[in-house]
Amino acid sequence: MRPWRRKKMSEQREWFLKNGSTFLQELIADSNGISNPIRFFSSDQILKATDRFHPNCFISRHRFFTWYKGVIEDRPYAIKKFTDSWFSEESEREVYNDIVLSARVSNHTSFLKLLGCSLEFPLPVIVFEYPENGVLNEQGACEDGTLLPWNVRLKIAKEVAVAVTYLHTAFPRIIIHRDIKPTNVFLDKNWNAKLTDFTFSVSLPVGKSWIKDKVVGTFGYIDPVYFSRGLVTEYTDVFSFGILMLVLLLGKPADFPGSDGYHCNILDYVKGLQERGEPVEFVGGVNDMMPGQMNMFLDLALRCCQGRSEDRPKMILVAKEIKIIEKGSHDCSEDGQI
User: Where's the Protein kinase domain (predicted)?
Assistant: First the structure.
């Protein structure tokens, strides 16, 4: 490489660190950084904590980032490293968006708490509290495949619903998550759910209920209205949450191979069963079945997944209804009455 080019690349890196740091600090200050201070870690601390991002430190791997466990000053952390190759100069803003919105909601118990970040990498590396019980897998189970008891899965749904309700109601500008799915839900030592990942999240303008934007998210969870028309609304999240409910209830991923060899999405699978008059089989052990609760939960999930946005309930109502379902812990009767 020619010396002048090497020098230019070095200068660009220095500019990125300087400008990125300034940009990040301004955004954090603008989004309640005073009450949610975050710590800045050096690259040496991050590399030592993760054994230079060694696979042995993996928590989970996503398309755009990887989670690692790292120990700094005798404290465990969840460390999120973005995949540099997936982000253009234009889309780097999504990384900062993740940091800022994570900071904004960190005082709420239903979100993974942001503790700090390092700007001494091509893209910021983000540091969160460590979730002792890991992350859900694509089937809504523990990452090692262990199925969670129904009461824990119901509790997870309730806590994620509360988290999404908070995003939709707590700020002058409604925050739309846009990527609600099991692998963005972590579990602490008490099996409390912690929603995370604001990479694709967007804040609607004050007083506005929708915007048009490019389609992002995860296949199987994307609202069909959003997919076909580019309209982002609070009901975009309601649909994704409904799919999450189905995954937790059936123990199947949002998209899976059907009996005919073709891919099948979980919503069409359930609707097909109902149209044919066949029962929807809920996952769980013999002593874990709560058919009344589960049928009410299924009905709510399908209402969240209605084709038209206006036919879906708001998240605040979804959260309230799940709490009602949970209160019927002795189980509800077969007709869905508590």
Answer: 53-324
